[in-house]
Structure formats: C-alpha cells, structure tokens
Write a structure and sequence with these properties.
Layout (H helix, E strand, L loop, with lengths): L1 E5 L9 E5 L11 H20 L2 E9 L12 E7 L5 H8 L7 E3 L23 E9 L7 E9 L13 H9 L15 H4 L3 H5 L9 H7 L1
Antiparallel strand pairs: 1-2, 2-4, 3-4, 3-6, 5-7, 6-7
Helix pairs in contact: 2-3
C-alpha cells in the first residue's frame, strides 16, 4: 500500500520518502490501513538508522492547494544525530512560521504512529506540520524517546503558510557542521560550499543526485 523512495535532493545518505501507492493529498485523508503500512515503513527506516547509531525525524508539511490532485502525501524520513533528534520539536515551536499555530492533542494510549492523523482534520483547508522523532532522551535519561506532534496553522491571527523549504531547514539545523562532508549532493563540492553549505542545501535543486548516486544510495 506504500513504498520507500530516495529523496531527489537528499541531505543525508538515508534521506527517504514514504508515500502511498494511490493518491491522497495528505496523510489526514488516507485510510487507516494505508497509514498503518506507512508507519511500518517509517519504523523500518527508524530501526535502520538506530542500527547505524543515528536518531531519526519524519515529517509531513501540508499546504492546501486549489487543486488537491496536485498534492501527493509523502513523509520524509531523515537520519540525524541521536543527541539532536528530539531538539526538532523545540525548533518548530520557536520558528516564526508557527506563530499563532495550535499544537493539537494526540492520543497517548496508542504507540506513536501517523495513524493518529486519520480523519484528523474536518477539511483539507488548513495547513499543518506533523513531526515524529526518535532519539536520545534530552531530559537526562539514558534511553531513547519516540514522540510526535501535530501543529495546525491559521489560528488567532497567525499565518497559514509553511515555507516549502521548512522541512529542509529543520534537518539542516539538526545536522552537525561535519555533515557537509557526507551530504550526498555535496560530494566533490565541499570546498566550493565551505561555510555556506547549509544555505546551498536548503534548495533541493542544488542537491539533485545523479542516477548512479541514486542507485548507490538505494
């Protein structure tokens, strides 16, 4: 019901997309069985990153469009440092783009899963950002934490736009400076990018990989 694809402009070697086979404009409009299958693949990618000593973030940015057929659900999954993964939630909360947003209550009686998005919004006329992450407990514990959050926009005078680059901005914030040496799209370009590699990588078109690179990443 869903499959994994390599991101066209990957920020890490494990940067992947989980997307349903059939068309859904957003995860909130997908059936429960599709969401369960997507979460199964997300969990597989999370486990793969943990085996490599990495944490993970998974996210969906949804913006309403006049033609819903122009949108197709995709959950981006990216491996990030274990110690920084859970900082993703703080970054979103503090972003100016989420002024006036609402943190929606999510059920706590079920495992962390995108199935919580089933029929979540009455209409598709509201922007949202869904984030799921697994990483080391930043509260001082020695174990791992698996958590998620849903922000909806357009409340209390706040804006409704989430920049198309926001997800990449979030990932680049979580990656260490040393990431410039392994961002797949920057292979052979590190000297040219120097300290501006984050700004350059913000645009996925600067990170389009060759067919050979895609095959190697896959």
């Amino acid at each position: 019901q869903s499959y994994i694809a390599i991101d066209k402009g990957p920020l890490t070697p494990s940067h992947s997309l989980v997307t349903p086979v059939y068309h859904y404009p957003s995860a909130t409009s997908a059936s429960r069985s599709v969401l369960e299958d997507m979460q199964r693949l997300i969990d597989c990618l999370f486990d793969q990153n943990l085996r490599a000593g990495l944490g993970s973030v998974a996210f969906e940015r949804y913006m309403p469009m006049q033609n819903p057929s122009a949108m197709h659900t995709q959950i981006q999954v990216v491996g990030v440092p274990l110690d920084r993964a859970m900082n993703a939630f703080t970054y979103v909360n503090s972003s100016e783009h989420f002024y006036g947003s609402r943190v929606e209550p999510l059920p706590t009686d079920n495992p962390t899963s995108i199935t919580c998005l089933e029929d979540r919004l009455d209409t598709l006329d509201r922007s949202y950002f869904y984030l799921q992450a697994v990483g080391r407990d930043i509260g001082g514990g020695s174990g791992f934490v698996h958590s998620h959050c849903l922000w909806t926009l357009g409340h209390g005078g706040g804006g409704r736009r989430i920049p198309i680059t926001f997800g990449r901005e979030l990932i680049l914030h979580l990656l260490p400076d040393s990431a410039s040496s392994y961002v797949p799209c920057n292979e052979g370009k590190v000297e040219m990018l120097c300290s501006s590699w984050r700004d350059t990588s913000l645009d996925w078109r600067n990170c389009v990989t060759s067919r050979d690179s895609e095959s190697r990443l896959a």
